[in-house]
Amino acid sequence: MFNDIGSLELITLVVLAVLVFGPEKLPKVIQDISRTIRKIREFSDSAKQDIRQELGPEFKDFEFQDLNPKTFIRKQLQNDDLGLDEIRESLDLKKDIQQLADPSIANDPSYRSPAAASPPPAAAASGPVGLEKKTPQSAAERPPYDLDAT
Predict the structure, then answer these.
(1) Is residue 118 part of a domain?
(2) Do 53 and 95 share a structural domain?
(3) How far is it, in rounded angstroms, from Cα 93 to Cα 113?
(4) Is 20 in contact with 33 (CB distance < 8 Å)?
(5) How many domains does the chain have?
């Protein structure tokens, strides 16, 4: 419960409690506080039990920690039913940037560029002068990619 309170903070709280309540009233105040905390815990445990009973047997493995958004998302991402690993791999920009910076990677057979997955667009057969579609340049024709310029 108080995992993040250090020894210096604990000593400060004890000294402040002695100064505020006095050494005579301090034991009674501690008993009252511990009784109140015990009642709050009992109330929350009974409320949790009532909720579990009302939900029924189909929610017997329900945990209240799952209501925390971080815990819920972490638990859902452990089950890769949505194919998130494939999406992450397809959005790996490091390989694309390295390929642009180092043309020798373009000759690597294990590297598959996202642009290679789709065919290049066809040039316009007819249209206004100067507005024809240009075919994309090959890796050898492209100017070198400058990481410092971006």
Answers:
(1) no
(2) no
(3) 10
(4) no
(5) 2
